[in-house]
Specification:
- By secondary structure, the chain is an alpha/beta fold.
- It has one domain: Aldolase class I (TIM Barrel, Alpha-Beta Barrel).
- The chain is 47% helix and 13% strand.
- The protein has 14 helices and eight strands.
- The protein has an eight-stranded parallel sheet with strand order 7-6-5-4-3-2-1-8.
- Strand 1, helix 2 and strand 2 form a beta-alpha-beta unit.
- The longest helix has 15 residues.
- It is globular.
Length: 294
């Protein structure tokens, strides 16, 4: 199977379960890994934004990478989240991390610094040159404060051949149109926004790196497979079924929302690392009504 085939379909930006003391909850993570794989998702993304990477040390990331690789045991593809707003430190992490068993790296665009487009290009050029595996770039301006423009994305796609895809969470369809129209044929567009995955696949995206699939991996991955097969009329009911669920997962912050779903399913606690906190009691009750309706 080619790498493009491995990364086609549904990847999950997996949560990192914690105990009340902020330690890793290994039994919960193992149970979740089996839950996701048994529900036929294509790959797992470890230590991404939903995995609370901003509160993980590089040493903790390595421990997570190792644990998920061991428990996955080749049953699904694996992507390691390694990024940062300090290019030199991110390059050092890419050089030092042990990533045997992983298929690719997800690397978020630089955040907080708010570099201009040339700075973003130079950052990804350095990532491209240092990465031991193919790289998925990640544009999420709602978190980073700066959008990677379509022009910069295309420049990276043309000049940084170890960067094979972009996870796009800009929600800007003009930008998505420009990327799809002008990208190299083998450069993949991946949805970074659950709510617009269906129209993005209609445009030509190869799938999604999902948050909602943490809790509903079976339905959501089936929706994606139907879309990829061109069966949009069959996929539409599943897409609409989760519209309110998706909104509820983000309205009081992520991963607080999805962890509340997982708690009510008995899969992990709502414990997060500060400054992220669980959802309010009112919102937890609302989530319960949505789950009951499903």
């Amino acid at each position: 199977m080619s790498l493009q085939q491995k990364l086609t379909g549904t990847g999950i930006a997996i949560v990192t379960p914690f105990t009340s003391t902020g330690d890793f909850d290994w039994p919960a993570l193992e149970n979740l890994i089996n839950f996701w794989i048994n529900n036929k998702v294509e790959y797992l993304v470890v230590a991404g934004t939903t995995g609370e990477s901003a509160t993980l040390t590089r040493e903790e990331e390595q421990v997570l990478f190792d644990f998920v690789k061991e428990k996955t045991a080749g049953r699904a593809g694996l992507v390691a989240g390694i990024g940062g707003n300090d290019t030199r430190e991110a390059v050092q992490a890419l050089t030092n991390m042990k990533l045997e068993g992983y298929d690719a790296i997800l690397s978020v665009s630089p955040y907080y610094n708010k570099p201009r487009q040339e700075g973003i290009f130079q950052h990804y050029k350095a990532i491209n040159d240092a990465a031991p595996l193919p790289v998925i770039m990640y544009n999420v301006p709602g978190r980073t404060g700066m959008s990677v423009s379509a022009e910069t994305t295309l420049r990276i796609a043309e000049n940084c051949k170890n960067i094979i895809a972009t996870k796009e969470a800009s929600g800007n369809f003009d930008q998505l149109n420009q990327i799809m129209k002008n990208k190299p044929e083998d450069f993949m567009l991946i949805s970074g926004d659950d709510g617009i995955t269906l129209p993005m696949i209609a445009l030509g995206a190869k799938g999604v790196i999902s948050v909602v699939a943490n809790a509903y991996p079976g339905d959501f991955s089936e929706m994606v497979r139907l879309c990829l097969a061109g069966k949009f009329a069959e996929a539409l009911p599943l897409h609409l079924k989760y519209t309110d669920v998706i909104n509820s997962m983000f309205s009081e912050g992520s991963p607080s929302g999805v962890k509340e779903y997982l708690k009510q399913m008995g899969l992990c606690s709502t414990d997060c690392r500060l400054p992220v906190v669980p959802v309010s009691e009112k919102h937890a009750a609302y989530i319960k009504t949505l789950m009951t309706a499903l």
